[in-house]
């Protein structure tokens, strides 16, 4: 397994948010992390990246225990984060956002510009002046430039217009086809399920169901994901 | 009042401004990037001056002293960051003020212990001795012109460093979202140490250069520190551009105020009183200017867009 998350628990201050999450991502696999709002998806991702280190359980990346490693080491070990809310650096240009934290590897500026031609057009613009969709492309491009082994996408299409969503999903499919391992959180099942090899559902900070998208019946969807 | 005298004072103002910029650049970077108020920045200025004076008198070369000032202040900055400052980033400003004030006392007593209470003197290097003629006939010391030039070079270098290099990009990225730059694999703690040492080196460099104009003594940094704080408040905290403009404004307004105010007042009151009142009013001038600027632009001339 590339990523192996076992029984992690995590808290925000005094309130516990995760009570035992198990999930795994194999090399080249795309795993969908699902659940209603507030069930712990983003907390799980923050725990994996050690932005909010888990206080119990273990996270392993390609066999290496991430316990106690600062988030920059986790990133260097091969996790590329596209965070909720995009979090591009608003005071840097598009080009600077891409190269500031880049690490050498297969992904280069040229390849990112081919994946997202829009970023090439806007390379000298400040990130704060980009549209939401362009910022999302930038956040993905920025993570790819660190040449991760595992790309984590947290709500990568939230609040975007349908055309832009399609462009983002097309890019994600392309990345998957190239063999990149992906952990993805998204609310739109119709777009998420075709991309995913496996689904993990969280409820109240616990992983409660795992399986292939085909096994995610209408009943299960209604029980765990419906509003 | 002659044109030559006015020009000389203007250059003095510029020279003061450039010195203040070297101090303020580090202070504003450290505040902008790490959110830290560093009262001990004046101590690093003093460290630079003492390092230069001590090394110059031991080796006989001002230039080696100048390099030593840079190196010692940067090293002192890095050590202080690793031992003390690093623990202060997540604490509130009051804790930072307390801890860095303690650092001032430690640095001052430490320096007194090493070098004694008597001031050291630093000679202007031979290359920069002498004066050049200004238009209008007055003579102006080459050394002060060299300080202005050095400051301009540092400003250019900083502009390129912050604006064009990957280190600069990371510094700016850290300013806007330090957690995110860490999550992308940049070791923010090392970055902070580098920024702090850089700021310290600039302060030490300023101290060394001023050391040849004034005496090198314990406590020399604090008056400059206060002016440097005025500069970064005027310029907008976190902005290097603001620090440059603010420093030149403060330097020129302060110098020209001390020069012109007594003369203007002499038109209305007897000369002896004019000197007294003018001098007192001139020392308030930069604070009045700060109040006026903040009334119009509460966050300074070049306030950063975030925070």
TrEMBL record, chain A:
Keyword Transport (UniProt): yes
At the top level, the lineage of the source is Bacteria
The record's listing under CDD domains reads: ABC_TM1139_LivF_branched
Q: Which UniProt keywords apply?
A: Amino-acid transport, ATP-binding, Nucleotide-binding, Transport
Which InterPro entries does the entry mention? AAA+_ATPase, ABC_transporter-like_ATP-bd, ABC_transporter-like_CS, BCAA_Transport_ATP-bd_LivF, P-loop_NTPase
The family database entries (SUPFAM superfamilies) matched by this protein are listed as: P-loop containing nucleoside triphosphate hydrolases
Extract the Gene3D superfamilies matched here: P-loop containing nucleotide triphosphate hydrolases (3.40.50.300)
Boundaries of each ABC transporter domain copy? 3-227
Would the keyword Zinc-finger be found if you checked this record's keyword annotation?
no
Gene Ontology MF term list: ATP binding
**Where exactly are the transmembrane stretches of this chain?**
none
UniProt record similarity statement? Belongs to the ABC transporter superfamily.
Q: What is this protein called?
A: Branched-chain amino acid transport system ATP-binding protein
What is the source species? Answer: Pseudorhizobium tarimense
TrEMBL record, chain B:
Please list every transmembrane segment annotated in the UniProt record, as residue ranges.
12-32, 39-56, 62-85, 97-122, 142-162, 190-213, 225-253, 274-296
**Swiss-Prot/TrEMBL keywords:** Amino-acid transport, Cell membrane, Membrane, Transmembrane, Transmembrane helix, Transport
Task: Note the superkingdom of the native organism.
Answer: Bacteria
Q: How does it sit in the membrane?
A: Multi-pass membrane protein
InterPro entries from the entry? ABC_transp_permease, BCAA_transport_permease
Q: Where in the cell is it found?
A: Cell membrane
The family assignment reads: Belongs to the binding-protein-dependent transport system permease family. LivHM subfamily.
What is the recorded name of this protein? Branched-chain amino acid transport system permease protein
